[in-house]
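Morning!

As promised:
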Amino acid sequence: MIKRVYKFFFIWELDKEEAWINDMASHGYSLVSAGRLSFDFEETEPGQYKYKTLFLKGNYYSKKNMDFFSFLDDVGIKVTSYINYPGTCCVYTRAVAEDYPDGINIYSDIDSKITYEWTKLWYMLFCAVVITLGGLLNLAVAMNRSSVWPLNFGTALVCFGLAIVCTIQFIMSIVKIRKFKKERAIHE
Amino acid sequence: MPQQALTEAVYYILLSLREPLHGYGIIQNVDELSHGRVKLAAGTLYGALNTLVEKGWIDALPENPLSRKKEYVITNAGTEILREEIARLSELVDNGKRLMEGK
């Protein structure tokens, strides 16, 4: 039986989303499909699966990503669901917990972790710029006293708020990359 | 030019591929060889295998109709690299022992 749960996560909350999905799995609800606002779960044995969410460059169906998913499948990690965004995609993978008792780890070397963080960093920068431009446009319309200027003003405020959050995520990625690079200087 | 040090992941991957193995087999073999110390993650292994194939250190074998999992095996060039790395590691260990233990 499929249980549908309505929940929303921002794109930068992928780690929080993963923790929630794993928590659901530990209670016997394993994700089978993820949408922007809803998640479908099947009833399974509690803790039967471990989940890992991935943020990848390019469309889900790009050759590069399809080759990667085929390899993941070979090592027992199956793609359960995905969401395409402009220029990127969020992928939900799962593996039988018996095969991955410590959870699914996709990158174990520092260089891959840095590359993964760069992907997130550029996307957050892109989002921050686009949302800021949207905010400025709405602010300009509101300043010209359009008939719906309060709506434009409110939208501009929301856009600026979201742009600030994207910028914070961008800065957090920079900090992580610097930390990884420092670590790489002494460790492999 | 002296060979640059291999990463621990690449070293163990090459060592594992003396016999044809697929991805999950490599992960398990590396885990076993290192007594559970080196946990090779799937994305890291995928990147390393692609690079090693490009360099000609390993070969991707034609797909086996009985198992759709892709298998890999070390090439002569890869074996040579592995030998050089073992010599380099021996030098590191010998020098360490000589200086630390006064041998």
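The radius of gyration of chain B is 15 Å.

Hope this helps with the figure draft.
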